[in-house]
Amino acid sequence: MAVHNLTSDAETFTCNAFLATGETPALVDAGAMAGIEERIADRVDELDRVVLTHQHGDHVEELDAVLDAFDPDLYAYAEHPRRTHSLDDGDTLAIGDEEFEAVYSPGHAADHLAFVGEATIYSGDVVVHNDEAFDYGSFGRTDMPGQSRERLIESIATILDRLPEDVEHMYPGHGDEFHGDVRDVIETALDRAERREPKYPE
User: Fold this and answer.
1) Which of 59, 145, 165, 187 has its CA 20 to 30 A from that of 107?
2) DSSP string of 179-192?
3) Could you tell me the end-to-end alpha-carbon distance of the chain, in angstroms, rounded to an integer?
């Protein structure tokens, strides 16, 4: 299974939109970069499903364009007019060639899910490898209405509890993907969040 970040060179603000090829071609988040459907078509002829970590604008702005172009199933936690499959904590689904468990992980977003497999995690925005705040082990912002640092901390701890020992590929909603000791990255993020380190300097 190959995973491609289709928005890695985007010039507009967007999340990472990951296309996993293989037995079940899937897009994890549609992003906010115009023309994403053309980049999908460059890699695959058919798209089986779109899987949403959450529905913030930078993750779903181009969702309709992808759904119109490929007519895939849409998997999401929260209601959406074009959702075909609802996801809840503990549900399983295929992304590419790997089976994943949905882990309900609010704090950054009330509808947030991370997807944990035997070797791979799609972590969305709840925990990321790096960003403008931290170089190794960061976490989603919680300073906006409806967000909660306390709930985010619980979510990161839950992900660690349910993370298999051999996970070595991390595909986050922002920043760079990571290959290696994913658990250490997430533990570092949890430690920073628990010490109430500010996401961004004042």
Assistant:
1) 165
2) ES-HHHHHHHHHHH
3) 42
pTM beyond 0.85, yes or no: yes
Percent of the chain with pLDDT over 70: 99
Which CATH number goes with the domain that contains 140? Answer: 3.60.15.10
Q: Which has the closest alpha carbon to 71: 102, 106, 40, 93? A: 40
Are the C-beta atoms of 96 and 82 separated by less than 8 Å? no
At position 9, the amino acid (one-letter code) is D
| Token output for 96 | 């590419």
Per-residue pLDDT tens over the stretch 150-192: 999 999 999 999 999 999 999 999 999 999 999 999 999 999 9
Name the helix (H) or strand (E) containing 128: strand 127-128
Q: Is residue 201, in this structure, part of any structural domain at all?
A: no
Total domain count, the chain: 1
Tokens representing 56 are 């913030």
d(CA 148, CA 165): 28
Phi/psi at 92 (nearest 5 deg)? Answer: -120, 150
Given a cut of 80, is residue 200 above it in pLDDT?
Answer: no
